[in-house]
Structure formats: C-alpha cells, structure tokens
Amino acid sequence: MSNNFKKSFLYKALVFILPVVMCVTQLSAIPVSAATGDPDAEIYYLEDAAIEAIGDIPSGYPKSYKIDTTGLSGTVTYKVTSGTDCAQVSSDGVVTPKVTTVTVIGSTSYQKKVYTSGDSVIRVTCGSYTKDVKVRVSSYLQIYVDNMIDDILDEIITDGMTDLQKLTAITKWVAENTDYSTYYQDTASMLIYGSGDCWASTNTINAMCSRCGIQSKGRNGRYDPGAGSGHRNVIAKCDGKYYIAEAGYSGNRPRPYSVEEAPNGFMCSLFTAYRYDGDETTVTVPSTYTSGGNISTLGGGKACVFDSNVKKVIIPSTIGLIANNAFNNNVNGNITITVDSANQNYAVSNGILYTKDKTRLVFAPASKCTSTINAKTTVIGENAFSNIDGTYTIVVPGTVKTIETSAFAGTHIKKLVISEGVETIGVAAFQYFKADEIVLPSTLKVLPEGAFFAAAGMKEITLPDGMEEIGKNAFQACSGLTALTIPTSVTKIGSNAFDGCSNLHIYYQGSASDWAAITLDSSLPSDVTLHYNSVRVTGISHGSSDITLTAAGQSVKIDAKASPTTASNKDLTYASDDPSVAKIDGNRIVAVGEGTCHVTATTVDGGFTATYNVTVQFPRYTVTVDGGTAYYIDAASSGLEGSLCSLSPSKTERNDGLKFKNWVLDDDIVIESGTTTSYYLAIRVPARDITVTAVYDPVKVTRLLINNYNWEMLPGEEQDLTVQVTPTYAYDQRVQWTSGDTSVVTIDSNGHVTAIAPGKAKITATAMDGSGVVNINNTWITVKDPPAQPTDPAQPTNPTQPTDPAQPTDPAQPTNPSQPTDPAQPTNPAQPTDPVQPTDPVQPTESFYLKQVSGKWYCYSTLTGSWVTGFRTVGGKTYCFGSNGIMLTGWKQIEGEWYYFASSGVMKTGWFKSGSTWYFFKSDGKMATGWANDGSTWYYFASSGAMKTGWVKDEGIWYYLASSGAMKTGWQKISKKWYYFDDQGRMQTGACRIGSSTYVFNSSGVMQTGWKQVGSDWYYLNSSGAAATGWKKLSGKWYWFRSDGTMVSSCTELIGGLLYDFNSSGACTNPSGRKP
Fold first, then answer.
1. Rounded alpha-carbon distances, angstroms, from residue 947 to 215, 295, 558, 928
2. Which domains does the chain have, with CATH numbers?
3. What does the pLDDT read at residue 34?
4. Please, are residues 129 and 71 in contact by the beta-carbon 8 Å criterion?
5. How far apart are CA 266 and CA 245, in angstroms?
6. In whole angstroms, what is the distance from residue 159 CA to residue 165 CA?
7. DSSP code, position 369
8. Of 544, 517, 524, 539, whose CA–CA distance to 484 is shortest?
9. How far apart are CA 219 and CA 246, in angstroms?
10. From CA 525, how far away is CA 415, in angstroms rounded?
11. How remote is the C-alpha of 788 from its chain's centroid?
C-alpha cells in the first residue's frame, strides 16, 4: 500500500472517526451513583489510522472501566439505557466504547470501524435496587490535538498581545508551517501531517482562536474575487472590529498570508461592499474602505450580500449603485432597509427600495411585496420581486411601463396582476414562477424569450388580445401547464416555445387557416394538443353527489360533463382520494373495499371540479348460534360475505352439566379452521343469514356413595338416606332407591326408610340418567327383634308395724312459705314431622354501600357493617377511602401513582381536561406518563401527566405530536418544511428509502433538495425531494445515479451496453460512451 493511499485512508478515518477494537487493559472501578451532572467516569478511544500516526492511547487515559457493585448481593444486571451508540457494557459490568463495523462501497471498497463520542447511561439492577451510572466516551485524538495547539500557542502568543496580534500570529504560523494539500480538511490531519486544504487551515485557525478566547468562524471565501468555488477562510472579531484571516489556498510552506480589516463585517474590494459575514442582525453598510476610499457599490459579487440572520440594513449616503443581486428574498424576505436621507441615489418607501426619484423599484422584501407600488415608478428592476414565497396578491400598476429580466423569477404567490399600460417584459421575467392566477395586459405586445421558462407550477395562462409575438423558449419546461389561450393577434411564435409542455392544450381563438398564417420558428411538440376556434370550458355539471356501492367490483358511470356543450375540450380527468375504497376505471367508479372516499372529476380545460361522495358498504349477514356464541374475528368486516366468524359453545360441564358434542351446520358452509367436533370452529360467512346449532351430551353419573346411615333399626323406626353423586355437576342426579327385602325395610323415592320386621335387607341406589351406576358401598340395614315384655314383680308381704317414735319437741314455728301452685299439667307434644332435607347454605357475598356521616361519605360492608378503606366498587363505580374511612376527592397520590377523583368521589378513567391541560387515566385509574395508547392512537404525557403537543424528544429520538396530541407518522409539513416519520413516529435523518424513492433529511429532519452528501455518498434531490436516478444533466454535465440515488464517481460503468467514465466529481467524461 502506498504512503499516499495510507494518508488518504487516515483522512477518512479522521473525518469519520474510525474505531479500533480495544482490549480491557485498565479497569477503573467507580462506585454506583445517580446519572446526573458530570459523568461518573470517562473512557477514551482512538482510530486505527490515528494509532498508526501518533501511537496508542497513553496509560493515563483509560479505555474501559468496571462498575463497582461492592455491597450488592444477588444477581446484578447491566443495561445501556441511553447513548446506546456510544458505549457498551458486558455482563460483568465492564464498560467500553461501542464499535460498529461498516463497509464503504466505492471504486475501492473497504471496511471501517466507527466510534461515537458522547454520554451513555448504564442502569445497574439488583433485585429492587436500581441506580444509573453516566459514562462519557471521548476521542483521545481530540485531546492530543488540543495539547498540540496549546504547545504551539505557548510558542507564538505572549503576554500583552492584543486579539488582533494573536490572530495575526496564529494565521502566520498556519501559513508558514503547513503545506497546501487536497488530502486533508481537518485540524488533526493538518497538525499531525503538516498539510491540508483551505478548510483545514480555516478549522485550525478557528481552533487556536477558540483557545485564545477570540470570536471567529469560517466563511465562504468563494465569494471573494479570484477565489475558487469551494474556498474557505476565517472572519474574526478582535477589539470590536472584524478581520479576514487568509492562510492561502495553494503552495508549500512558507505560504503567504493576510489579516485584513473587514469594515463593519463586510468583505470589500474595488470600492464595493460585496459580502457581509458578521454576526449582527442590524448592519450598517460601510461608507469607507480600509485604504480610505469611499465605498460606492453594494453587491455585485457571486451571491447576495446578506444572510438570513440580518434583519435590518442601513445604507449610507455614499452608495451610488446597488447591484441587482444585493438582496434575495430566499434569505432576505423579512429584511428592513433604511437609506440615509442624504443619499442622492436611493430611498425607501413603504418598506420597498427605490431609486431616489421613485422611477425604478429596486427590491421588494416579501414582507412588503403587497404594498402599493409608488405612482412615479415606471420600471420594475431585475430580480426586484424574485423568490417571494407566500399567499400574496401583487398588483403592478399601469404607470409601470417596463418589467426587467427575472423580476419575478422563482416567485410563488397566489395572484399577480399586471395592469393595462405595462408595455415591456424582460427576458425570463417569470422563469420558475408559480401562481394560481396571472393577469397580463393587452398593452403587452411581445412575450419575450424564456418569459415563463420552467414555470412548472403554472396550470393555466391566458395571453391577452393584442399580443403579437411569443418569444423562443417562452413556455419551455412548463410541465404543469395544461391550458394556454392564444389570441388571433399573435403572428409569430419563436422556436421551442412549448418544448417540455407534455400536458399542454393550446386554445387558439382563430381557425386552422388563421393558425397556418402564424410564423412558427419550430413545429409544435407532438404531445401538445391544439384546439381551433376555441370555446373555453366555463364549468362542470353532474347528477347526485352521493354514490353507494354494495359489492366489490360493482361500478357506476361518472356522469360529470364539462359545460358548455360546445366547449372545444370537454375532456375530464378522474381521481379517487382512497383507491382502497373505490378506484377509477376509465370513466367509472369501481368498488374495492368498505369505507368512504371522494372521487373528483376535473375538466382538463379550466380545472373545474365535481366531487362525488362515495360510500362502499357491503351487505352484512347474521350468524345465529343455538347453544353457543359467534365472534367476528375482524370487527371491521363483521358479517361480510367471506369474513371469518369464530363459534364457541356457551354451555359448560360444571355450570350446566352438559358436555359439548358437535356442531350442526348447513353443508355449504365453508369451515376455515377445525371440524364439526372441534370445540372452537371458524367459518366463512355465506351470503345469507344462518343458524348453527351446538349439540351437547348430558354429563353422566360415574359414582354413587350412600352417606352415613343407621345400620340397625327396630321395627317401626324411620330414617332418611342421602347419596353423594360424582361428578357433582352431573346433569341428571336423580336415583332410584330399592330395598332387597321389603318385608324387612321399605324405602320410598326420596330415600325415606321404614323398618317393618326383624331381618336384614340390602339398600341400593341406582342412577336414573341411564348410566346404570349403583352405589359403590354395600348398604345393609338390620332390623332387630324388639326387647321382651317384663313380668309383674311379686306382691310384697306386709311389713312389721313400727312402734311410735318419741314425741319430738316442737321446733320454732317457721313462717309460712308461699303456697306453690300446682304446675300446669304438660300437654303431650305434637309428634314431629320428618324434617325437610336441608340444602347446602349459600355462601354470603360481601358488597358495599355509601353512607354520609356528619357531612362525610364512608363506605360500609354489608357483611361486617363496618366502614372500610382503600379502593372499593359501589354500583359499578370505583371510589377510594382513606385510612380514616373518608371518601377521597380531587388529585391524590397513592403508592407513588396519581389518581383523580371527581367531587362525587368517582375515580376518573380515560381522558380528563383540567383547565387547558389534558390528562389520560388508564383503566385502573393511574395517571399516564410517557407514551400511552388510548386504544387507537399514541400520545405522550409529561412527568406531570400533561399531554404534550408539537416536538417531543424521547431517548434521543424526535417525534411530532399534532395539536390534538396524536403522534404523527408519514410525511408531515411543519413550518413550511417537510419531514418524514416512520410508522413508530420516529423522525428520519440521513438517506431514507420511502416508497420507491430515496430522500435525504438533514440532522434536524428537514427534507433536502439539490446536491447533498450523506457520508461519502452524493445525491441530487429533485424539487419534490426524491433522489434522481439514472442519467441526469446538471450545469451542462452528465451524471449517472444508481437506483438508490447514489452518484457514480471515479469509476467506469457499463450502462445500456456502453462503457462510460466518471471522474471524482461524478461528471461523465465521455457522454457518448464507448463499446466494451
């Protein structure tokens, strides 16, 4: 590999920051901490090519570090939660710079490793413990370069120097210590290799100025006389004045350099102030040059003088000439211009710049373009109204006689009226022009060369009676122009006047013979349609605006007609705004799918429209399920012929005692999934209402067990037997009771047993559901003999007559107790009847009710009668009660989550507006934060719960939310700029493939046009933003773009059977090609 190639590769590495795969050599341990403020650690990387030039990273700059998790027990996990393109972390907590390998495809393909500087956050988790660690990933190359700059400044900058002296010393060092080379454009390469181009010189001077505290920036030196198209140098502000620092753009060291004052921030030459590069928004044009001469001219360089940051310009008395390109509405549309009253050449009236006598209008800022043009004005100057963009109506009065070249070039407005009296229009006066309407006067006799060149946005133009000549190329490349009215007064049409007008209809007011008398410098293009004796369309008529179609493929003829019926061109075009609902086939509307759309018929002549409101509604058919339920799989197409319908049984074994057996349905029903015996069945809905039947078998008894009973009985005794049925949900649980010997015991159908006589009998319970199941336990009842009747006892003999006892002494006379009454003779209790067999008691359920006590609301339990706390559902509504039992209202934070309870106490769910702010509460009542979906649409809510609108950045990605809060996807025009958001709402940047085209978006997401470079690839983007493909001629040179829009360069390609060579800038050097 040659040294030059190595240098070239290093250049690419330095520009794109090529990485090197690093080993974990120094593990710097840091404690876990919150990821706020300064980083917890910083690690470094260095590109392979840089290592080759300056050696590896010194030991004092760690390439990795290990997170210290001392004190944590259990499994620790690590995850990069932000800055995922900067750092990566291993399973054991070692953090290293993240490296990505990409393949660069060109004339010589190679792989490069890419690092990204920035901060990453690593989340450390161990059980419920969570902490974030911030790690900064930095390029060591920048540190190395900064050290080189410090060493250089130590040599050349001394105490007491003014900023101007420092700037001069820095510029001198760069010019005298480096060579000019197109290899390198960056500071690092210039300092390490000692060479670079003007961009490298500029970047190096700016880097050194920054270290010295001098305000400086790069400027487009290409505007300077004699400079190349890509030249760049420095403008710096020293001691209140601006200076241009130039380190040269050719030659080897020592190179010439200069530091010259830029008066008021202007680049001046030959008494001309031609470019302003300062930073002020209010700018005064200098009246004198550095050498002492007066500045008499403003503008005249390669571009307009002022950038868009300039809001006000003050023109001194010395200015005698303002060039046509001094101002441009592309960047100066809102500028305010003032002119010194002593100026003898220019003045401002109503915000518009005129010559002193008001006879010539020099420049009209877009913000002032609708102001009334001065009555003294006879000339609209070159570029005076060019590049205005807005819904303006501009009126040029009849006092104006001349409109100069490009006066309205590139202007996009609503309407332009050029009044009667204007006589002359300059070449290309309306090139790239666009307006809904333009009115031209009959006093205009000649439409000059290229008058409307590439005015692709114009749809219709009427040339006035009295116009005599149409210049060459007058309407060339007006691809959007569909109608042009030409009067019979025209006698000459220049060459190529209508080339590139592929959709043009010319409505000539005379006959074919009149047209033949016109002098045509070239014939009409074949795709231009000419109408003679033209009668213009004045409107459009149609029948009913409402159309309903009921079947796919059904169609209806569009009845719109152009009027009058005598119109020369009655052709119509048709368009549907939703071809998925209804499409256009010729002049018919054809149903495609259900929905609503609008079909518009438009007259080719005049653009008159008729709109049809189309509804496509296919018939719905009902699926009725006897013994089951029907569920339409796609709710949007429910009931449509051919839509999917899922069937499921509605009865279950446990609840109903029935077991699903099979489905009964008509033979012509299409089964999509399952069979007639499948529990779930999917069918296609036919073109009629149908009934499907679910067939069930009863659940049979599989086991009977007679419960506890008395084994032994006496004649006349009675008892009741019960039986335990398995399964408990058997459909028919009746049993038949039988006694094996009815002379011993009898048993009725309810299991009531009566003992008859001594003996032994077997009791049997048999299931009556046809299963034939009998009880599994042998049940015998023994009736015993009653006990023997006892005999009368023997009569006792008379006892011996006792002797009288001694007479006792009288005891103390007791008080008479109350004489007790005889107790009531108890009646015989009624013979108890057999108790009814009790059923199992129903388990009581708990419910709640609200009660107001002392003006406070509480919730009480129906089981305990006490008030309860926490969340409770009453009457289908959810409430919450505090630890004191009182009902909560308003905003409440519960276990870290926010809820809102109405004044009635009901917990809010769904959308809620408080003041002017919207909130969203989930189904469980918790306030949403971050991203949330309300069922159909994504929204984003701040940590306060407030719904966000407009731009939102989440985890480094930009999203855009409509005023309703809904996340936007697809193409969106925001502040007059186009952006694209993917189906997840993420704003796109860089080169993106959308549909069949490639588009390029800058780092802010704005769609780009023109030449743009992405990485090492160049694209050319049309005005629609789509990248060009195939051959493209630009600025007189031919380029070839691949199907993905990337430009071919520095190679030879086989295209259409021929070989073509392309130089490094992509231009084809042999446009005719050569044979292989």
1. 42, 57, 46, 9
2. 41-140 (2.60.40), 157-261 (3.10.620.30), 268-344 (no CATH), 539-616 (2.60.40.1080), 642-691 (no CATH), 703-783 (2.60.40.1080), 848-961 (2.10.270.10)
3. 43
4. no
5. 13
6. 11
7. T
8. 524
9. 11
10. 29
11. 102
> Which residues are CB-neighbours of 292 under 8 A, at least 6 positions away?
none
Instruction: For residue 40, count other CB atoms closer than 10 A to its CB.
Output: 22
Q: Which amino acid is at 232?
A: R
Integer angstrom CA distances of residue 754 from 707, 720, 744: 17, 9, 9
Kindly report whether the peptide bond that precedes residue 727 is cis, defined as omega within 30 degrees of 0: yes
Pseudo-torsion of CA 529, 530, 531, 536, nearest 10°? 70
Backbone angles phi, psi at 201, to 5 degrees: -60, -45
Query: How far apart are alpha carbons 17 and 189 in whole angstroms?
Result: 12
Picking from 632, 631, 624, the residue whose alpha carbon sits closest to that of residue 665 is 624
Task: Tell whether the torsion through CA atoms of 859, 862, 866 and 871 is positive or negative.
Answer: negative
Of 450, 405, 410, 452, nearest to 425 by C-alpha is 405
| E strand or H helix at 180 | strand 179-180
Structure tokens at 218: 């790069």
Residue from 459, 420, 458, 416 nearest 439 by CA: 416
**Given CA atoms 810, 812, 818, 820 in this order, what sign does their dihedral have?**
negative
CB 644 within 8 A of CB 632: yes
Beta-carbon contacts of 245 under 8 Å, excluding residues fewer than 6 positions away, are 167, 170, 171, 205, 216, 233, 234, 235, 236, 257, 258, 259
Element (H or E) spanning 12, and its range? helix 3-16
DSSP string, 263-298: GGGEEEETTEEEEE--S-SEEE--SB-TTSPBP-EE
d(CA 1022, CA 1040): 14
Tens of pLDDT, residue by residue over 273-327, are 888 888 889 999 999 877 667 889 988 766 778 888 889 999 999 999 998 888 8
User: DSSP 3-state assignment of 953?
Assistant: strand
Sorted by sequence, the CB contacts under 8 Å of residue 32 that are 6+ apart come out as 67, 68, 69, 124, 131, 133
Q: Give the residue from 435, 423, 432 showing the smallest Cα distance to 450.
A: 432
- Indicate the helix (H) or strand (E) that contains 738: strand 735-739
In the predicted structure, residue 114 carries a pLDDT above the cut 90: no
The answer to whether 357 touches 380, Cβ cutoff 8 Å, is no
- For tokens 């709402």, the residue is 985
**CA distances, 1002 to each of 18, 613, 615 (Å):** 22, 40, 42
- Beta-sheet strands, E only, within 569-689: 572-576, 582-585, 588-591, 595-603, 609-616, 623-626, 628-632, 644-649, 658-664, 671-673, 681-684
CA distance 582 to 593: 7
C-beta of residue 776 within 8 angstroms of C-beta of residue 705: yes
- Identify which of 372, 315, 368, 373 has the alpha carbon closest to the alpha carbon of residue 346: 315
Q: pTM of the full predicted structure?
A: 0.52
- Distance CA(851)–CA(856), nearest Å, equals 8
Closest CA to 642 of 614, 682, 595, 590: 682
Q: What is the mean pLDDT of the chain?
A: 86
The residue ranking higher by pLDDT, 17 or 399, is 399
* Angle at alpha carbon of residue 114, lines to 109 and 116, rounded to 5°: 155
- The Cα-based distances of 405 to 466, 635, 665, 944, 1011 in angstroms read 22, 63, 82, 59, 27
Q: SS3 for 48?
A: helix
pLDDT tens per residue, range 983-1037: 999 999 999 999 989 999 999 999 999 999 999 899 999 989 999 999 999 999 9
The Cα 430–Cα 384 span in angstroms is: 12
* CA 763 to chain centroid: 79
